[in-house]
Write a structure and sequence with these properties.
6-stranded antiparallel β-sheet; single chain; 5 helices; alpha+beta; about 30% helix; about 20% strand
Length: about 130
Amino acid sequence: MQCPKCSAEMKTQAVDGIEVDQCTGCGGMWFDLREHDRLREKGGKAVASLDSGDRAKGAANNEERDIDCPRCGVQMVKLAHHEQTHIHYEQCATCGGAYFDAGEFDDLRELTLGERVKRLLPGLRRG
């Protein structure tokens, strides 16, 4: 598989029984349908070391638009993560795969203090 951002080869690695593809050029990561959510929920050392790409390259690549899905070739949609709206990733509307630029999955694994408070607020309002 080729990286949808820089066209370098994607290397597959297995983490807790889930295969993740990481770009050998820019360090971006491809997750098949909901794999990023499953890995995020698992946590652990293996997941913590998964996103090893250069964050500066990832930030620069995040500006790139109109990329095609490396699995099915359909133009992907740019989304903001529902809990962490500062994280923008691409998702394929056809196969459901998701592409995170280098550093984005690592950022997704940990909520900031503000994001933790937002998560608690709905519960606090009910009480």
